[in-house]
Amino acid sequence: MAISLVQLIWIVCIFGLIDGDQNSRHRKSEYIEDHCSQRIKLPLFQRLALTRDVFYKDGWRCDVTLEAEANHVVSISFKKFDIGRSKLKVCKDVLRIYDGDSIKSSEMTSAKGLCGQLIPKQFVSSTKTMTLKFKSRYLTASAGFTVEVTSFGVFKENSDSGACPNNSFRCMDTFCLDRSLVCDGVPNCRDKSDESAQLAGCQGFNAGLIDLSVGARVGIFVAVALLLIGMCWTIVYCFCGSSSAKTVYVPYKKI
Predict the structure, then answer these.
(1) From start to end of the chain, where are the E strands?
(2) For residue 27, what is the DSSP state?
(3) With contact defined as beta carbons under 8 Å apart, do 206 and 185 qualify?
(4) Which of 44, 118, 148, 175 has a CA that sits 20 to 30 A from residue 88's CA?
(5) What is the pLDDT of residues 40-58, one digit of tens each?
(6) What are the structural domain ranges in the chain?
(7) pLDDT at 3
(8) What backbone torsions phi and psi does residue 23 show, to the nearest 5 degrees?
(9) Taking the complete model, does pTM exceed 0.85, yes or no?
(10) Are 132 and 64 in contact (CB under 8 A)?
(11) C-alpha span between 74 and 174 (Å, rounded)
């Protein structure tokens, strides 16, 4: 019974992940290395990868400016991140992010910059442009990074309409998201409300998970982990029990 229950949970999880990712997997990546020293005119959503190679090259510098349409801001969320090795005070290979159209704009990253393997936080510009500056010094066999870039409209509390323009979806903060990006399998809002079953009317397994509290998610994770452990113990017990069973021969006695 334990095995069949675990299998059922795995089936539900797999179909849920497929349902949540069926749209996002078809999004093609643009490569930042193809746009060095250029300005990228952003669509509503764009996936950007640093390089198409397995590892980025050493002694390389690349600056690129991301530009949204008027009355929009730029948001980037990191999905993969592998830049050099993080040192105590300085990054040998480093990514820096600026709130504007050049590296002379206000820097959004710390003085150290971004490096290492930990996924950085989400960055949102205050204007329609954001600039990324990447620099590598040594060959470190690192893969670089991949970001998902979203163009947000800005909600104005004192506007005449009192709502997001063009009937776009309002995140729980002050940003407006185009309706085409709602329930597409990719959380664009910082609070993930655009993929919520309750707030956006999304369907599917992942939409239900987003609406759960942190405690509920932890509970589900623990329950699944315990079921998996139980399944493993059941398999081990059945295998060891059958292999250790011995045939007992009863001596024949003539009466």
Answers:
(1) 29-31, 38-41, 45-49, 60-67, 72-82, 94-99, 106-107, 123-124, 129-136, 144-154, 169-170, 175-177
(2) P
(3) yes
(4) 148
(5) 999 888 999 999 999 998 8
(6) 26-153, 156-203
(7) 46
(8) -85, -40
(9) no
(10) yes
(11) 13
Q: What's the CATH fold of domain 156-203?
A: Low-density Lipoprotein Receptor (4.10.400)
> What percentage of the chain has pLDDT greater than the value 70?
71
Greatest mean pLDDT among 25-34, 82-91, 177-186, 241-250: 177-186
pLDDT digit string, tens, across residues 2-38: 445 444 444 444 444 444 444 444 457 899 999 999 9
Angle at 144 between CA 184 and CA 129, to 5 degrees: 60
Copy the structure tokens of residue 239: 């295998």
Task: Inform me whether the pLDDT recorded for 203 exceeds 60.
Answer: yes
Q: Which residues of 194-230 are buried (b: 16+ CB within 10 A; e: fewer)?
A: bbbbebbebebbbbebbeeeeeeeeeeeeeeeebeee
Q: What is the DSSP letter of 174?
A: S
The mean pLDDT value for 165-193 works out to: 85
The arithmetic mean of pLDDT across residues 126-135, rounded, is 95
Write the CA distances from 66 to 19, 96, 128, 179, integer angstroms.
Answer: 30, 13, 8, 21
Structural tokens at position 15: 């179909």
| Selection from 165, 207, 205 nearest residue 183 by Cα | 207
CATH class of the region 26-153: mainly beta
User: Does residue 100 sit in helix, strand or coil?
Assistant: coil
Residue 83 in tokens: 């830049």
